[in-house]
Amino acid sequence: MTALFFILAACTFDPDPGQSGEELITCAPASTAEYALDDATNPLGFAGQAVVDLVVREHTTTFTWDKDGAITDLVVDVASAATAVTYRDMEWQDDGSGAEIAMAAADCPDDLLLAVTVGFTTADGAFAESWDVDLSAPTAEAAAAYVELDLDALAGTYTVTEVDPADFDAVRAFLDLAFDAIGPWGELSGQAEDNGDAADPDSVASAQFFAIGEFGSAPE
């Protein structure tokens, strides 16, 4: 699936991946301000109500499992009790190590945050979830959120079979969710982590990524 078309908050960029933990650059708010939903005087020039109109309703689409290509119906139900949005002035910020922010390879767009509750229900029963999330909207026509799933507390029947959890120290799963004028789209993916052997100085930690499924129609 096409990668999400804008960068969510709290993303980081390491100009020297060979020096883990050093010279990290973070896309983070330099300042924030709240605006009523009908107030379009924020620097982005559109009201939070435009984001509400884009996302708040019941959306229907299909979910395709990566493992076997099976397709099931998916309902993404978005609700919000918010009366305001938060404008964030996003900037690349270094950690004080002197890394060049200009080296950052991705955009760091300002956005509006809208608090919503997202229902995510597949007809095959694998997912029957509900999450409280902040949707990031850099424009009136696009919004997105990133959710780490609690695999031990899913309401649906999904269990990780893409890898064998017994072979790893930890297994995590993530939802990348985006909205545009057509509707919701995105993907579910996972990461299996091997922390290495603490007793072996030559042991190396590693991570294996795996796809779970995708849904909706990503922009071309």
Give a brief rundown of this model.
The protein is mainly β and 220 residues long. Helices cover 4% and strands 48% of the residues.
> How far is the N terminus from the C terminus?
10 Å
Number of strands: 11
- Tell me the β content: over 45%
Gyration radius (Cα, Å) is 19 Å
Strand order of the largest sheet: 3-4-6-7-8-9-10-11
Query: What structural class is derived from the secondary structure elements?
Result: mainly beta
Structure, described:
The protein is mainly β. It has one domain. Helices cover 4% and strands 48% of the residues. The chain has 1 helix and 11 strands, in the order ββαβββββββββ. The protein has one helix at 48-55, and strands at 12-13, 25-36, 58-65, 71-79, 84-94, 111-122, 128-139, 142-149, 170-179, 184-194, 206-215. An 8-stranded antiparallel beta barrel has the order 3-4-6-7-8-9-10-11. A hairpin with a 2-residue loop joins β7 (128-139) and β8. The longest helix is centred in the first third of the chain and has 8 residues, at 48-55. The radius of gyration is 19 Å and the shape is globular. The termini are close together.
Q: Could you outline the blueprint of secondary structure elements for this entry?
A:
Elements (H helix, E strand, L loop, with lengths): L11 E2 L11 E12 L11 H8 L2 E8 L5 E9 L4 E11 L16 E12 L5 E12 L2 E8 L20 E10 L4 E11 L11 E10 L5
Antiparallel strand pairs: 1-2, 2-5, 3-4, 3-11, 4-6, 5-6, 6-7, 7-8, 8-9, 9-10, 10-11
